[in-house]
Amino acid sequence: MMSAVRRIPPPGALILTVLLATSAPTLAQDQTVPASTAATLTVLSGRVEHTHAGASQAVTATSGTDLAVGDRVVTGPKGRALITFLDGSTVAVEPASDVTVRQADVDGHEASRLRVLVTIGTVWARVAGWLGGRATVTIQSNTYSATAHDGLIGAQQQREGPFVCWTRAGIVEVSDSSGAELAKLQPGGKATLTPGHPPVTEGFSVNQSVLEVAVSGPVQPLVVMPDERLAGFVKQGIEVNQVFGSLTAARADGSRVVEVPAGVSGPFILLLTPVSDGPYTVTVVGRYRGAEVYRQQRNGVGRRGQQLRADVIQTMAGPPSTDPGTARVTGAGVSALRPEIARPGLVVLSPLELAAPRQ
């Protein structure tokens, strides 16, 4: 199925739908998506419920639903959802989570202040970078909060358990309910906070096996996970990050890097979207506990408008039932790049971010 772009009047979000033929009917091309008042909800998988502020009855959520301050999102054991705010910041809600939008203030092109309460579960946020550090995203529990002005951050609150927060990019300020700062996390850091105890800080990784894609040249890389979540960049040059613990980064020299947890064989789909004609290089690297296991490189000449695809299938040590967090990658096959039209996944883009200057 060809990709479909639906434009909705600012200050709402633009939804770029990229679907396979097997996608659910609720995401069909002719679906009408209303303008959002504060944020847009996207159902990535499984059961997701939405409760309007002040209401007591939850309803089954659908992609394109408006979210307002006070609205609640609950995911089932296999459910995942994405909240896209008007500034382009996103909060991915992981399975078995209960979150509430507490603040969604966006001052046009000047600044934004966003806050999400995690009653239970895990979230992963991408802070809109086009505001140049003037965006503020806070993930909070009833006891603690984690705040960032750029980058990729996450937090978790389990029932009667500690509050845990992470950052892959950007500095995170960790505070208690009074606002007193308890810790400041640097990229790659993790903090665990328990009432009555000092914060415990350490390094952060989701899987011991990771997959990295680095590209140079006039192409935008997008990695599609086996469950169709996305991490990378769309053709507009905007960062997309729906994958907990992943890294999406634009380097000063114009190259792009995408790193995702890779504790399963796959398949992982690599999509390259040329933004102009010209030569490119793409390097696919697999690592286990930081040590390089495999490296494969592809070179080519991109043609604007011709999307390319490669499939990455890894070999893993041990039985398929091995915990993805500890599974060890031992090698991989990377197919040749070939033209591709259909793309899985769903991308929601803010008109404010679309209109912002690209680096």
Description:
- This protein has 2 domains: 36-203, Jelly Rolls (Sandwich); 209-341, no CATH class.
- The protein has 1 helix and 32 strands.
- It has one helix at 351-355; strands at residues 4-6, 14-17, 39-45, 48-51, 59-60, 65-67, 72-75, 80-85, 90-93, 98-107, 111-127, 135-140, 144-148, 151-157, 163-169, 172-176, 181-185, 189-193, 200-203, 209-216, 219-224, 230-233, 239-241, 247-250, 256-261, 268-274, 278-288, 291-302, 308-316, 329-334, 338-339, 346-349.
- The strands form 4 sheets. It has a 17-stranded mixed sheet that branches.
- Mean pLDDT is 89; it is low at 1-12 and 17-35.
How does the overall form come out from the CA principal axes?
globular
Question: Gap between N and C termini, in Å?
Answer: 31 Å
What fraction of residues sit in β-strands?
over 45%
Query: CATH topology of the largest domain, which one?
Result: Jelly Rolls
Binned, the helix content reads: under 10%
Compute the number of structural domains: 2
**Name of the top-level CATH class of the largest domain:** Mainly Beta
Layout of secondary structure:
Blueprint: E1 4-6, E2 14-17, E3 39-45, E4 48-51, E5 59-60, E6 65-67, E7 72-75, E8 80-85, E9 90-93, E10 98-107, E11 111-127, E12 135-140, E13 144-148, E14 151-157, E15 163-169, E16 172-176, E17 181-185, E18 189-193, E19 200-203, E20 209-216, E21 219-224, E22 230-233, E23 239-241, E24 247-250, E25 256-261, E26 268-274, E27 278-288, E28 291-302, E29 308-316, E30 329-334, E31 338-339, E32 346-349, H1 351-355
Parallel strand pairs: 11-12
Antiparallel strand pairs: 1-2, 2-32, 3-6, 3-8, 4-5, 4-7, 7-10, 8-9, 9-11, 10-11, 11-14, 12-13, 13-16, 14-15, 15-18, 16-17, 18-19, 20-25, 20-27, 21-22, 21-26, 22-23, 24-25, 26-29, 27-28, 29-30, 29-31
